[in-house]
Design a protein that fits this description.
4 helices; 73 residues; 75% helix; mainly alpha
Length: 73
Amino acid sequence: VHAAPGPTPAESAEFADVIEHVLGELDEEERRIVELRLEDKSQEEIAAALGCSERTVRRMLQRVQTKFEKTLV
């Protein structure tokens, strides 16, 4: 059994550029939510950290996901 090859350095660099572009398109609050999710914080923990409701966090995560999807298409 062979392990699947990882991305090439060029593919990794291109992906990093896409992520950087999308993060640059986010407002400060959206970026903070992404950072907290990448730290494996729950929606409840993010809401507490930002002083907003979990519903707001869910809505903003969905908006961020939509931005990522549009960029990756």
